[in-house]
Amino acid sequence: MKIVRYSPSVATPAAEEDTFDLRRVGKIIGVGLNYRDHAEETGLTLPKEPTLFLKATSALCGARDDLVIPREAKCVDWEVELGVVIGRSGVYIPEVEALAHVMGYVLAIDFSERDFQFNRGGQGFKGKSCDTFAPLGPVLASPEEIPDPQNLALRLAVNGVVKQNGSTRDMIVPVKALVSYISRFMSLQPGDVILTGTPAGVGFGQKPPTYLKPGDVVTASIDGLGEQRHVAVASR
Q1: Separation CA 80–CA 199 (nearest Å)
Q2: What distance in Å separates the CA atoms of residue 100 and residue 87, rounded to the nearest whole number?
Q3: Any idea what the CATH number is for the domain that residue 171 is in?
Q4: Nearest residue to 214 via CA among 66, 115, 108
Q5: What is the end-to-end Cα distance of the chain in Å, rounded?
Q6: CA–CA dist 153, 78 (Å, integer)
Q7: Number of folded domains in the chain?
Q8: Does the residue 5 lie in any domain?
Q9: Which ranges of the chain would DSSP assign to H, the alpha helix?
Q10: Would you give the DSSP letter of residue 131?
Q11: Cβ contacts of 87 within 8 Å, gap of 6 or more
């Protein structure tokens, strides 16, 4: 198990082999609508093939950093996800070999600004890539520590109220199939991160929709991968 960190200066630096520095991340690949209940709550049609999108690496932050609400934001949403970190490069990876390319697993939140995503033109990249919208950590667990990535509970709460409570066993496309599928369109490199989708309970799916505001506290956890805590603050 490695500690996930970003800053090169920490109070008590861990040995290099015991850390995963977020500066090593090459690209962040998101998977949309990979849980049936999430697709149903949003009213979106399930895709025939996995929907992929990218998040900018400038969105990366740590497990306890503040969530910065962008200046023009109206609809900042939450999505707890299992993150898969690639450890061995590959392209056209057979599904039976896919998990051998995985370095480990990490707790992630795919924060999203829905107005930017759906109403500001172009792809959803705008709504996914704001600073602090891709927190990872606090730990990176090895495949030996997480022998079955399809049997992990995911939870997220806002101000202590549970919003998401799901399991990776409900993924439509499992981890090994995602790794194989994505490698058909781009090579996967060490340090790349795949965000594997989110279960039901996002703000966009609430009735009426509910979004984050300054002062809100978001906590999230996945079995064996620790917990994140983020305080929402207004952008300066």
Answers
A1: 8
A2: 8
A3: 3.90.850.10
A4: 66
A5: 36
A6: 17
A7: 1
A8: no
A9: 36-42, 114-119, 125-128, 175-182
A10: T
A11: 101, 102, 103, 104, 190
pLDDT under 50: residue ranges of the chain:
none
4 lies in some domain = no
The parent domain of residue 143 ranges over: 18-234
Cα dihedral angle (96, 138, 34, 28), rounded to 10 degrees?
-80
- Asked if residue 1 is part of any domain, the answer here is no
Q: Phi/psi class of residue 43: alpha, beta or left (left: φ > 0; alpha: ψ in -120 to 50)? A: left
Whether residue 44 is contained in a domain is answered as yes
Kindly list the distances between the CA atom of residue 94 and the CA atoms of 131, 157, 181, 183, 196, in Å, as whole numbers in the listed order: 34, 37, 9, 9, 18
Instruction: Indicate the SS3 state at residue 103.
Output: strand
Burial classification of residue 41, based on how many CB atoms lie within 10 Å of its CB (0-12 exposed, 13-18 middle, 19 or more buried): middle
| The residue to which tokens 């340090």 are assigned | 191
Q: Where do we find the tokens 């998401």? A: 164
Q: 140: which 2 tokens?
A: 């990176």
**pLDDT attached to residue 13:** 52
